[in-house]
């Protein structure tokens, strides 16, 4: 029996597979996606196993990861019912894990329950830096999930980055900042690089320097525990260049734009979970 099956090997599913295959034996990881080129590439990078069908991947795995879009998740779940019923008849205890935004634990449990399967269910909202071990993977569980299995889950995802259990309410309201922030940060890095290029820095160096500066700033927040405003003030010398740059961002409503990006992304996540 395989430890974990991935149904879907897109950007997010693939990133998680990359991380998990560093934490457990890659041959315990089985993947299925209709895009055979995608699964072949992922298998060649990690050593994970490629299944010839979703049913075959699911029927022989303990954890079933539904790495698909919210709009198609229920259809995928319905199609997997027979394979999961077969596993149950064979005495296999399975756990469902979904990475789809907006789909509640109760929703995820509904189709299995309607088909006689009362299973542990996990909602995880990961992000793509999991591929390099710098991800943020927050998750919530239903009452069928034991502490022992939560510990096992965190071990499997340990090479993906920070993996943290939260309540479902926190998961919902933090979903945008956890999942969408990489895209926002890439935009910021690109914009900083544009500014550096305007000042005469070659493009490749501008991107490298901007990315390293943002990475270092984020690490300072995490490792020192200081409030971002305190760290910002420490960089802003009176009458210096940094405070002029900060004022320029403030005049452009930088903070409000960033906060609104998270707020409206979260509103969209709520819509994604509606039937």
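Sequence proposed for the structure above (275 residues):
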């Amino acid at each position: 029996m395989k430890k974990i099956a991935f149904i879907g090997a897109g950007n997010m599913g693939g990133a998680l597979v990359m991380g998990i295959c560093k934490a457990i034996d890659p041959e315990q990881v089985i993947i299925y996606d209709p895009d055979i080129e995608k699964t072949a590439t992922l298998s060649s990078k990690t050593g994970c196993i490629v299944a010839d069908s979703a049913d075959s991947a699911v029927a022989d795995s303990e954890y079933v990861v539904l790495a698909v879009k919210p709009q198609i998740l229920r259809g995928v779940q319905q199609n997997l019912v027979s394979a999961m019923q077969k596993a149950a008849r064979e005495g296999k205890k399975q756990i469902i894990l979904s990475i789809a935004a907006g789909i509640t634990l109760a929703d995820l449990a509904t189709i299995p329950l309607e088909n006689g399967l009362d299973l542990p269910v996990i909602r995880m909202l990961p992000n793509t830096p999991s591929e390099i071990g710098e991800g943020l993977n927050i998750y919530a569980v239903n009452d069928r999930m034991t502490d022992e299995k939560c510990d096992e889950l965190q071990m499997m995802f340990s090479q993906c980055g920070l993996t943290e259990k939260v309540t479902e309410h926190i998961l919902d309201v933090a979903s945008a900042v956890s999942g969408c922030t990489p895209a926002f940060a890439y935009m910021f890095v690109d914009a900083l690089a544009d500014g550096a290029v305007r000042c005469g820095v070659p493009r490749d160096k501008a991107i490298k320097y901007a990315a390293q500066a943002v990475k270092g700033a984020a690490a300072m927040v995490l490792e020192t525990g200081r409030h971002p405003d305190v760290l910002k003030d420490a960089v802003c010398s009176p009458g210096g260049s940094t405070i002029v740059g900060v004022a320029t961002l403030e005049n452009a409503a930088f903070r409000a734009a960033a906060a609104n990006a998270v707020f409206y992304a979260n509103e969209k996540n709520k819509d994604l979970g509606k039937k």
